[in-house]
Amino acid sequence: MRAARIISTDGPRSVRIEEVAEPVAGPDEVLIDVEAAGANFPDVLMSKNQYQYKPELPFVLGGEVAGTVREAPAGWGFSPGDRVVAATTTGAFAATVAAPVHRVGLLPAAVDFVAGACLPLNYLTMSHALVRRGGLRKGETVLVHGAAGGIGTATIQLAQVLGARVISVVSTPEKAEFVRSLGCEEVVLADEFKDAVLALTSGAGVDIVVDPVGGDRFTDSLRCLAPLGRLLVIGFTAGEIPSVKVNRLLLNNIDVRGVGWGAYNAKHPEAFVQEWAQLVPLLSFTPPLHRTYPLEQAGEAVASLEERSVLGKVVVLPRQLS
Ligand SMILES: NC(=O)c1ccc[n+]([C@@H]2O[C@H](COP(=O)([O-])OP(=O)(O)OC[C@H]3O[C@@H](n4cnc5c(N)ncnc54)[C@H](OP(=O)(O)O)[C@@H]3O)[C@@H](O)[C@H]2O)c1
């Protein structure tokens, strides 16, 4: 089968399209014919050996899929022909992938494969973040950085559906326009976000900050929190991992909370199935698609995330001929 492989960790454009052996499903794995695979920032990091999980070279890039079951172990409720999604960590940019059975969910008939491929990583991370880690309550205000990206758009759509007010932070007017098209009217530019957020909330601040960006905006994010507010640490697309002076937490009765969805699920194998069952009834929205790429351009798809040019999500179609 054809697959997009990392053979040297020189970044997304070092991806090679190669003919490789089809995976063989182990006793706890589902063999899935991949129709669509989501590209995510962790793929950028893995292509440069900068992610917390460091697969041995060579490896097939891509961490989430939507597709059709070819083989499944008994007792999990999956049969050949079922439409499913899965979180795979690697292996998704290929015609077929073997996914751990506890990280597979049935895809509702109303959701197409491309939309399905956008869901597992970002939407389950943000459900874990907002609900389990953030304790989001209806009527609270959520501030989200990198709002036009994959995690950002998942935050907007989920927080809105959970009854929150959302304020978005983006770097350009084009991204602001895009975020407004998702129904998030309150958008501020990153350069001036603290004062703008405090003005929008009449000085009260927000209940939750979702931060997938890190870097130098972290302290101003803490300054945007209302008393009992929570800052959710999701990632560091800006490159720098911020540090926190804990007196700020004491003085304002605020929390900084880490969110590691993969780490949580590794210790709680039952979590994916429960989280997927909670997400499906909320799917009154469609994840915003920037564009799809054929397998030959998988490296370009991932590079577009690093280049900060994506509005929403990019998806690789491993079975589409370019
Ligand atoms: N903790 C978890 O469990 C978990 C799960 C999934 C993903 N993540 C992490 O979440 C982060 C976001 O992932 P994603 O897939 O949503 O990424 P994405 O779609 O590429 O979006 C990231 C956003 O970050 C902003 N950004 C700021 N500085 C940037 C830079 N130097 N390079 C690129 N983007 C920059 C961009 O928005 P502006 O241009 O508007 O600033 C961009 O829209 C990553 O760090 C990823 O590893 C964490």
From TrEMBL:
Pfam families: ADH_N (PF08240), ADH_zinc_N (PF00107). Residues 11-316 form the Enoyl reductase (ER) domain. SUPFAM superfamilies: GroES-like, NAD(P)-binding Rossmann-fold domains. Gene3D superfamilies: Medium-chain alcohol dehydrogenases, catalytic domain (3.90.180.10), NAD(P)-binding Rossmann-like Domain (3.40.50.720). One of its GO terms (molecular function) is oxidoreductase activity. It comes from the Bacteria. This is NADPH:quinone oxidoreductase family protein. It comes from Kineosporia babensis. The lineage of its organism: Bacteria, Bacillati, Actinomycetota, Actinomycetes, Kineosporiales.
